Amino acid sequence: MKLLIISTYGSYPELNNGPPIVIYELLKKWSKKIDKIYLISGVRNLESVSDAYKDIKNLVFIPLERSWGDWSKNECNNTNLYEVRFVLNILLNMPRISWTIIKAIKSINPDIIFYNGIPFDPALMVPILIKLKNIYQIARVPVYLPFEFKGKSDNKIMLFATGTIYNFILKNIDLIITQSNEMSDYIKSNLKTDNCIVIPNGVNLSNRMREDDNRSRFILLYVGNINSNKGIQVLLDSLIHIRKEFLYQIEVQLVGYGDPEFIESLREKIKVHQLKIPINFLGIIAHDKIMSYYNKSDIYVFPSYQEGMSLSLLEAMGAGLPIIASNINSINCLIKSEFNGLLFEVGNASELASCIERLLEDKMLRERIGLNAYKTSKDFSWESIADRYLAEFGNTIRFKDNYSVT
After folding, report:
1. Is 207 a member of any domain?
2. pLDDT digits (tens, 9 = 90+) for 376-390
3. Which positions ≥6 away from 217 have C-beta within 8 Å?
4. Are both 120 and 35 inside the same structural domain?
5. Residues 171 and 144 in one domain
6. Is the same domain home to 243 and 274?
């Protein structure tokens, strides 16, 4: 079988967030069972990316090196400038990228084209727009904007435009794969389709090696983007509800990228609340080093308002951390309160504070919930998740050409 992957999110390790990491982990498993894999992905530093993928056998990496402009929002402090550069980047690179993709499809003649994300960039839509025959097209959809922004955006025109483009793309995809039942049900209802299934993210299981360095404080850890949708402000608000005898035992570590203005607002909140405990904004940590942060922490807090299926939440469970998370559909299908975590009403800082206090004062509860979280994570090993994708690949090829996965 020949598999062509078009990654709309760029490449790991240049981009250190969920979608590129997921593809990197899946590639390591798929390469053992697929004849040939081709990966088309944007890069800036080809050497660093090539080094990360060099040990993945049967993989041919086809870089899309963008020739103009800064295409990383993380490095562009002016939002308006970022948006202008983003649009110009797409327009100026479109002919070259489109031609690269067309040439690749002609020379490879893949059995399946697999999109890591919805190809919103017109250049990446080429295989969809030209309506390829005898090539099955599958999209892994971590984010579906009509779902993400439902009831949240005041910009009705933007929501309508993006929703229209997303729906057009997905209606021309043979199979849609989401990471949560909630998003899958929404897409099925919105598109009036049944060609949408759920395959969750995976996790590399650790040996639950807690690193106890006789520290005097309990470390509360959060890993992910730092923005209002992730509920970081709720976590900080919860600290003012915690009794002082517990509060001064706490250190908070926040790992991930955040808009500088939003982080500054959080720092101001810390001053207003007079929270005189360590609250550390650690920025982006390379994924291959993140496990040490899980192992040095005591509690994982995930106060998000809305999620697909969080990779960091699974990683925390795989490290055996007791979990405190908001009670939303994409989380409560994974976390069962009092069994492998504690759930609190989304946005309720007081209830979150109560959950933190319970785990701080009850060592047996922490250990029991952490152990159950670890046991749950075993169902999500990258090996088993990769095999579920392979089964779908095999089904589609057998259906169309009477082939099977090797």
Report:
1. no
2. 999 999 999 999 999
3. 249, 250, 251, 277, 278
4. yes
5. yes
6. yes
pLDDT (tens digit per residue) in 152-209: 555 567 667 777 877 888 888 889 999 888 888 888 988 888 899 999 999 987 665 5
H, E, C per residue of the chain: CEEEEEECCCCCCCCCCHHHHHHHHHHHHHCCCCCEEEEEEEECCHHHHHHHHCCCCCEEEEEEECCCCCCCHHHCCCHHHHHHHHHHHHHHHHHHHHHHHHHHHHHHCCCEEEEECCCCCHHHHHHHHCCCCCCEEEEECCCCHHHHCCCCCCCHHHHHHHHHHHHHHHHCCCEEEECCHHHHHHHHHHHCCCCEEECCCCECCCCCCCCCCCCCCEEEEEECCECHHHCHHHHHHHHCCCCHHHHCCEEEEEECCECHHHHHHHHHHHHHHCCCCCEEEEECCCHHHCHHHHHCCCEEEECCCCCCCCHHHHHHHHCCCCEEEECCHHHHCCCCECCCEEEECCCCHHHHHHHHHHHHHCHHHHHHHHHHHHHHHHHHEHHHHHHHHHHHHHHHHHHHHCCCCC
- Taking Cα atoms as reference points, which of 83, 38, 71, 42 lies closest to residue 56? 38
Say if residue 266 is in the same domain as residue 386. Answer: no
In a domain, 98, yes or no: yes
Question: How many independent structural domains does the chain possess?
Answer: 2
Are 272 and 282 members of one domain? yes
Residue range of the domain that includes 233 = 218-380
Whether residue 327 sits in one domain with residue 237: yes
**Which CATH number characterizes residue 12's domain?**
3.40.50.2000
Token code pair at residue 43: 């890069």
67 touches 35 (CB < 8 A): no
Q: In this structure, are 158 and 295 located in the same domain?
A: no
Q: pLDDT (tens digit, 9 = 90+) per residue, 140-153? A: 988 776 666 555 55
* Domain co-membership, 386 together with 325: no
